Structures are given as structure tokens and as C-alpha cells.
Amino acid sequence: MAPILQVRDLKKIYDGGFEALKGVTLDIEEGEIIALLGPNGAGKTTLISTLCGITVPTSGSATVGGHDIQTDYRAARSMIGLVPQEISLEPFEKVINTVRLTRGLFGKRRNDAYLDEVLGKLSLLDKRNQPTKELSGGMKRRVLIAKALSHEPRVLFLDEPTAGVDVALRKDMWEVVAELKKSGVTIILTTHYIEEAEAIADRIAVINKGEILLVEETATLMARLGRKRLTIELREPIQSVPETLSAYDLELSEGGTDLTYTYDTHQEKTGITGLLAELSAAGLKLRDISTRQDSLEEIFVGLVQEGAA
């Protein structure tokens, strides 16, 4: 089965010569959640705007469910739901009417039973007759999602859906996204919150300066690029790392009580056994040892820095 979204060598060059997208190629499978990560100005919103028909690409192609975004625009756009960054709702209109209007704009017949089902999944059913101005920020974002789902799309774009939302509401939104995936909706998520991608995305695409640096399953990316750090707590502080340990590139903490050793778990030998023996030979006594793996944020920063080099 072909991917539900196929992007081939997509480019966008604005007047003045700025190249926002530099030949993006990407396949997204039906029913998956893919997180698009990148710093400000990386091209995330331009890519989404282009795929949704808001911006016209300079060259390249993209299809949604087999429909070309330019030559078969209406069919392609009808398969897409878009939740923008900005909250823009008619403040005095009821929630249900707001959602009905969006459904109508896509030429869909009125179906309150379906809309009530959507509102129920988003914990908005008891708010259906309230003016949107009476809702909290988190609830307004849910209304945006309801609007995006009103015409029964198969692909949902979430552009910074939890921006400005507190931690509790953010995690609540993650549950909403997980439920949408269960119903078969394909989700493309842009976010500045690395933990968001790590928590809910099946795959991660890293974009910088208009180019996709990599696309990989979240767990595989963590395993492939994540390094482990061994922290050695000493019984007595030291002023500097002994010369005999220079081969291990140890990092000494400011107080002189902790040594940090970074190693790759995929190497045949981690060097830990030799390090511990050398520590003992140097007369250093250990209080404790702990390990941790790099977070996705640390991996992401490293990838962007490499791409900028």
C-alpha cells in the first residue's frame, strides 16, 4: 500500500531568493504519528502550508491519498485537517455552530451525530452550546482540533498544538492525539517540545534550513544516536583528572567529586571495565556509579549543529 502522504523534491523559493524548502522528500504511512522537529525558521510551517495548499510550491510534487496537491487540489485538501498555531475563533459563536460551519465549507452535509462524536472524544460535548469566548485556552485548542476533524479528514496537521499550554493540559492533549491515532487518523505534528515528540510520535523527522536531515522511528533514533553517560561519584574531591586517565576523555564536575564518562553502547567494548581498573590504580575511591542515556533533546541539538556545520 502506498503511503498516504508522498512528498517528492518539494521546493519553495520566495521573492527575493529565500529558499524555505530545499527539495524535501518524505513518505508518511497511514495511521502513524510523525513529529516534525526543527528550530525557528527551519521550514516546518512552510512545509505544512504548502501541503495544505496555503502556499504554492516552486517545484516538486506531493500527493495526499493519491491526489496531487496542485492538479487535484480540492480532493487533496478534503483529506486534510489543519490545526494552526494561532487560536482564531469567533468569540460569540457556539462551539457546535463553529464546527458545523467548517464542515459546511468542505461541502459536507450536516451530520450532528458525527460532530457530537468528535466533540465527545475531545471532552467538549458538554461545551457544545457555549460561546467560544467562555472557554479556557486548552479548550479553545480542542475546538480547533474539532474544526479540523469536522469534515472527516484522513490526515491531520497539528502545528504547535500545545504552544502556550501548561504541562497538565499538554499531557492531556497527548492523550487526545493518541485517541485520534486509534481511530485511524494520520497525524503530522510540529512542536518545540522535544518531550512531546518523544512521548507520542512513532517517527521523527528533523528539518533544518529547509532540508530534512533524517526520518527515523523514535525508539530506533534513540538507540542509534543516543549515547550513555557513566557518572562516577568519588569519595574525595580531586583537583584534576589524573594523567593516567587521559585516554578516557573524562569530564570533571565543578566540585571535583564527579567524573563523567560518555560511551557508545553499540561499540564492541565500552571501556568501562578498563576505566574502573585505572581509577583503582590511580588511588581514587568510588562512592557511587550511575548511568543515563541522552535525551531526544540532546540528540536533536547535536543533529542541528551537524547540519549547520
TrEMBL record:
Gene3D superfamilies found in the cross-reference section: P-loop containing nucleotide triphosphate hydrolases
Single GO MF descriptor: ATP binding
Residues annotated as domain ABC transporter: 5-234
Keyword DNA damage: no
Assigned keywords, A-Z: ATP-binding, Nucleotide-binding, Transport
Matches recorded under PANTHER family: ABC TRANSPORTER ATP-BINDING PROTEIN
The protein's name: Multidrug ABC transporter ATP-binding protein
Organism: Pseudooceanicola nanhaiensis
Source species taxonomy: Bacteria, Pseudomonadati, Pseudomonadota, Alphaproteobacteria, Rhodobacterales
